[in-house]
From TrEMBL:
It comes from the Bacteria. This is Helix-turn-helix domain-containing protein. The keyword DNA repair does not apply. Pfam families: TetR_N (PF00440). InterPro entries: Homeodomain-like_sf, HTH_TetR, Tet_transcr_reg_TetR-rel_C_sf. Gene3D superfamilies: Tetracycline Repressor, domain 2 (1.10.357.10). Residues 18-59 form the HTH tetR-type domain. Keywords: DNA-binding, Transcription, Transcription regulation.
Length: 204
């Protein structure tokens, strides 16, 4: 099927609405009929583009979920710079955007990794690959900081990256329960303490 600009826009809209539905209700609580009704299309139109609900979700993963996770990435700076303020600013920007949201159900990537764990290895592989991209990027940023003299040379950068990602997963889960502003401030403060503990030099 030839992908025209009109088709591309329609597919993007279908994925965006589908992701919103999956994010709100969960994959297994969302039927194919729910999707078709929510998209206001016929079964034939849906099957013209996607073979199944699983195929539809994989397409969402490869496009929207990947892009939303990429928004959390910082490529290692080409010039000498401490990685800690970069990471803090990135997380603070993302958490502040959550505070403005009227409907928060947690961190999309973490939610779906948890939902598909031991239930659908095919989909979970796509999600874990996205997580790996984030982990590798963050590890590279910390290793560059180590070479530049900002991160203590005894630090295992891969473990530190996993710790940072896990802590972000955790605070986003807690924020669903409320007190978002307080949790955000506490989390960022604790992250600053952690960065201070693994830094080679005192952060400015």
């Amino acid at each position: 099927m030839e992908i025209t600009l009109e088709n591309s826009k329609m597919l993007h809209l279908m994925r965006a609405k589908g992701l919103e539905l999956f994010y709100k209700n969960g994959y297994y609580n969302t039927s194919l009929n729910d999707i078709i009704q929510n998209l206001s299309i016929t079964d034939e139109v849906f099957k013209h583009h996607f073979q199944s609900k699983e195929d539809f979700f994989i397409s969402i993963s490869q496009n929207l979920i990947l892009q939303r996770t990429l928004d959390l990435l910082i490529e290692p700076a080409a010039y000498k710079q401490s990685p800690f303020p970069l990471i803090l600013d990135m997380f603070e920007d993302n958490l502040n955007s959550v505070l403005k949201s009227t409907s928060d159900h947690g961190f999309i990537l973490a939610n779906f990794i948890n939902e598909f764990n031991n239930r659908n290895s095919k989909i979970n592989k796509y999600l874990l690959d996205i997580l790996k991209i984030w982990e590798i990027n963050l590890t590279s940023l910390l290793r560059k900081g180590q070479l530049d003299g900002y991160v203590n040379h005894h630090v295992d950068c891969e473990s530190a990256a996993n710790h940072i990602i896990s802590s972000y997963f955790g605070v986003r889960t807690l924020m669903v329960e409320g007190n978002n502003r307080g949790l955000t401030q506490q989390y960022l403060q604790q992250l600053r303490y952690y960065f201070y503990s693994i830094s080679q030099k005192v952060m400015a």
